[in-house]
Automatic annotation (TrEMBL):
Domain N-acetyltransferase intervals: 27-171
PANTHER family: GNAT FAMILY N-ACETYLTRANSFERASE, LD18367P
Superkingdom as given in the UniProt entry: Archaea
CDD domains recorded: NAT_SF (cd04301)
Keyword match Transferase: yes
Region Disordered, annotated ranges: 1-22
Any one GO molecular-function label of the UniProt entry: N-acetyltransferase activity
Keywords assigned: Transferase
InterPro entries linked: Acyl_CoA_acyltransferase (IPR016181), GNAT_dom (IPR000182), NAT_camello-type (IPR050769)
Protein name per the record: GNAT family N-acetyltransferase
Amino acid sequence: MNGEGITDVSGFPETPFEFDDGEGRAIEVREYDGEREALLSMYEEFDPGDRAQGIPPVRGDALERWLDGILEGVNTVAWDGNDAVGHATLVGDEGMDAHELAIFVAQSHQHAGVGSRLIRGVLSLAYDRGVRDVWLSVERWNRAAVRLYNGVGFEKTRREGFEIEMGTRLTV
């Protein structure tokens, strides 16, 4: 990737870790460990208006197949008690060294710092697993997401149509 940012993960928390979000809720971020039903529940409750680029799929077999695919990567989940309230995944691209980042936060927990902590957790875990190059695609009008990604070191690498591609190289 040319023009990608640099993300120093040495100051990022190692999973598992806890924090109080902006609403004062105790949130735990930990590596995915088979809690599939809790993730399915979170994704089934996603507001269709908050779905970007067709993901997550709405329900049923499409959601199950999509979840099967992303759970093969590096995954962290944010928990509010027994409820999954956020999920970050890094999935390897076939034939490429780079991994694609996707992050999802339940509507009830958006704008409270869950997303930024979730990203830091998954990037730290990914670095420990040997991942160095990460990219993502975001809708260009999603300024909050672009700010979030910039805040952890991502830079724009390409802009086409409705999407911006961003990338970063993980270092310590």
